[in-house]
Amino acid sequence: MINASASEVSTSSFPQQGLYLLVVHLPTAASLRVGKKRIINFPAGYYGYVGRAKKNLRARLKRYLSPYRQKHWHIDYLLDQAVIHNIWTSQDEKLISLEKEECRLAAAMRHHFPCQPPQLTGLGASDCRCPGHFIFLGHNLPQINLVLTQLQLMRRKINGI
Ligand SMILES: [Zn+2]
Fold first, then answer.
1. In what helix (H) or strand (E) does residue 104 lie, and over which residues does it extend?
2. How far is the CA of 159 from the centre of ligand 1 (A)?
3. E strand spans, the chain
4. What stretches of 104-156 adopt beta strand conformation (E)?
5. pLDDT tens sequence across 89-103
6. For 99-135, what is each residue's pLDDT tens digit?
7. What is the 133 CA–ligand 1 centroid distance (Å)?
8. How many whole angstroms separate alpha carbon 135 and alpha carbon 113?
9. Would the pTM count as exceeding 0.85?
10. Which residues pair with 22 in a beta bridge?
11. CA–CA distance, 31 with 60 (Å, rounded to integer)
């Protein structure tokens, strides 16, 4: 698990643009406020959060890893209780229809992990119309890693982890 503070984190091996997927671990079930009004029950387990960056991806990821984070995105609320376990990115830095690619990756994840808690619908997808960019991945980390590798994502090392 990654607990290093942002200043210690080296993201130099990361691309500056493209898709990214955070694998986040929530050790125990939690009811968390998300946004201003919604309270959502999150089962314990691993979650995937799919995002995209047209630039400054490294700074974005450092922000996620920082404990001193203003809450802006839905993922920020989950990160109050959950820990970023790993970060995956697309292998190339192509920008063609990145928005579509982001929703397509989320859809592929839902296909591989079909047991989605209904309360997650719409999370992380304020600027698109797909069912959401939060995907509940269950508890089987080797299976999660296998699926992400099959989807041609690359696991990026953070400080050798
Ligand atoms: Zn979407």
1. helix 98-112
2. 30
3. 18-26, 30-34, 38-42, 45-53, 83-90, 134-138, 153-156
4. 134-138, 153-156
5. 987 656 556 778 899
6. 788 999 999 999 999 999 999 998 888 888 899 999 9
7. 6
8. 8
9. yes
10. 49, 87
11. 26
